[in-house]
Here is the input.
Amino acid sequence: MRILGIESSCDETGIAIYDADKGLLAHKIHSQIELHAVYGGVVPELASRDHIRKTIPLIRQVMLEADTTPEQLHGIAYTAGPGLMGALLVGASIGRSLAYAWNIPAVAIHHLEGHLLAPMLDEPKPAFPFIALLVSGGHTQLMEVQGVGDYRMLGCTLDDAAGEAFDKTAKLLKLGYPGGPKIAELAMQGNPDRYKFPRPMTNRPGIDFSFSGLKTFALNTLHKEGDDPQTKADIALAFEVAVAETMVIKCRRAIEQTKLKRLVIAGGVSANLRLRQRLEEMGAKLGVEVFYPRQEFCTDNGAMIAYAGLLRLQAGERQGTAFGARPRWPLDELSHL
Ligand code: KG4
Ligand code: ZN
Here is the structure.
């Protein structure tokens, strides 16, 4: 079975072809970062228009690279939510229409399920069940994953998502967008002994997160200490360490609660090397295996959508000719395979 995957939920157009026997045949990502950077964040209408410009040319390129004709495809998977309504509708309408024209099935994929399964694009694949820490620009959730579609929420953020906290803190440090990679880069010059930021919500039991206070802490430190380059680097490092350590504490609690021995981290923030390193150290101590996607599949991409689509199409799931998009879409509404 060979599947075309289309991702267009936010500011990346991602296209990929995944083959059940041969694995990932080709994938391309067009990032809109430059388009939105001048505005300091994603402008939804510009995002939709850019997806319209890029989706079909990218599909052509990927099919050429994968040496695949429409007759060789067995299905199309597209992201149907959550995300920006207009952006989602571009991928959904192109995906559904191509499937109709080529007379093959289509399947609507949940963006976070795509992230969650992204570590399975490489070997060794994490086996079910596992704990998943999903950390992206819009979501921060700890989940118990028993199988595809079988997701139980253990904890989530009460305010900002982890990626959002990186982006907002980067903005107040005047580092630009997207903030995660910029903070990580600047933090490399930081002095680890200068500041210690709080680890929010760790001095009481529970697995929920809160990140908005950290951003305020960064702002207050900046006002008090000035914005010379070294101070900014020291703040970036203290912020990054605080986020990573908070996640380590919450993951440890999730491990203790569920007794599971595998941990998956996925979503844009899982690209963060400090976070990966701290979680690996914790995993080594507790005898827990830690999995994450390869760097390019941490942030939005078409490969994860094609892979999730393969699993759902293999299980017989189909999207009828009527289709839509769901800007909000709780993960626990998905069907179990
Ligand atoms: O998964 P993603 O591409 O899009 C959403 O589904 O939201 O995640 C994007 C988020 C952004 O907030 C970005 O700042 C963050 O992931 N991010 C990072 C890193 N790379 C991307 N955060 C921390 N460290 C990084 N290296
Ligand atoms: Zn994402």
Summary: The mean pLDDT is 97. The radius of gyration is 20 Å. Residues 229-258 form the longest helix (30 residues). The chain has two domains: 2-117+297-333, 129-292.
